Amino acid sequence: MSPSPPAEQARRPPVRFGIMGCASIARKLARAMLLAPSAVVAAVGSRSEAKARAFATDNGLATAAPRLHGSYEALLDDPGVDAVYLPLPTSLHLRWATAAAAKGKHVLLEKPTALCAADLDAILAACDSAGVQFMDATMWMHHPRTAKMRELVADEDSTGDIRVINSLFSFRADEEFLHNDIRVKPDLDALGALGDVGWYCIRAILWAVDYELPKTVFALCNPVRNQAGVLLGCGATLYWADGKIATFNCSFHANLTSDMTIVGTNGTLHVTDLVIPYEEKSAQFSMATKSKFAELHIGWDPLPSKHVLPTDLPQEALMIQEFSRLVQNIRDAGGKPDGKWPAITRKTQIVMDAVKTSIDNEFGPVDISS
User: Fold this and answer.
1) Ranges for the Gfo/Idh/MocA-like oxidoreductase N-terminal domain (predicted)?
2) pLDDT in tens, 91-130
3) What is the pLDDT of residues 164-177, one digit of tens each?
4) N or C: which end of the chain has fewer CB within 10 A?
5) Which of 111, 244, 347, 356 is catalytic?
C-alpha cells in the first residue's frame, strides 16, 4: 500500500496551493489536492473571477472556500498561497512561472514545461534565485509501481545491462480536439503531440537509464502535422555511446496506448498503462527474467512474473503529497529545494528540443552528449 505521510509531515501545516488557470487538466489536480493530507486549495486564479468561481463550484472546492481571483497577478499577490500549480498553455509558462518564483511561490508546472530549454533555464534560474521548489507534473513518477519497477530495473540479476527501450503514448483525438484544443494551436502549445504525449515517452526512456543523456538523437521521418504546422504525431531514435538504443512514438491519431518496454541482457520489463494506470487503486507490470523457449519451442520457461502494486491515493495525490513535503521542508524547517526534480525536467526538455531540432533539420542527427 502507499505509505502514509510521515508523522513530521502530518504535524506541519498543510501547503496552501493556488491554482493558476482553469484548464481541464486542473480539475484532476484540484481533486488530488483535496485527497492529499498535506495540501489545501487556498486560492483559484483565472482571467475572470466568475470563471474562478465556476471552477471552484464544479470541482468540489466549495468546502475548502478558496479565495477567488480574477487575474493571475492577484493570485500571486495572495500572501496565503505557498505554492502555485500552473496548467496554463506552454507559451505562457515562462512569463508566469518566473513571476510566481519572484513572488516566493513554489512552482508545480504542467508539462511540457517550456517551449525550449532556454525558456526552461530561465524558469529554473528564477526558482533557484528565490529558493523555491520546482517540480514538473509528470504524475506516473510518483506511483508506487514506479519505485518497484526501478528496483527491478536496477537489479543486475533481474534486468542486467539495458540494451533496448521502446516507449509509446497515443490517443485518438476527436475532431473537436484536432481543431480547437490548445495542443494543436501554434500560438499556445506549439510543440503539439511532441510536447504533450511525447514528453511522457522521453521521460520514460530517461527514467529507464537513470537519466543518462543519449549521445545522438534522430527524429523519425514523416511526422504528421496539421495545417498550422503543429505536430500531431512523431517519433525518434536515441543512441548512447555504449550501444543502448531507444525509440519512441507519440500520436494524436492512434488508439489509446501507453507502453514502455525495457530490454536488458538478463530481463525484460513491460508495462502497458504507464502514464495513467487502467485502474486508479492498483497498477501492474510484467517482468521476464532469463527467458528462454521451453523444450521443443512450445512455450516459454520461465514465464514472466506479474507484479501488482496497490495504492490508497491516486498518483496525482501522491505527487501533490511529495511536492508538499518538499515545500514544508523549506517553509517550516529551513531546508533547501531538492535539485533532483529540476535536473530531471531539464534533461527531458533537452531531449525534446533535440527531437524538434532533428525534425526541423530534415531528420538529421543531433548530438546532445555535451
Assistant:
1) 15-135
2) 999 999 999 999 999 999 999 999 999 999 999 999 999 9
3) 999 999 999 999 99
4) C
5) 111
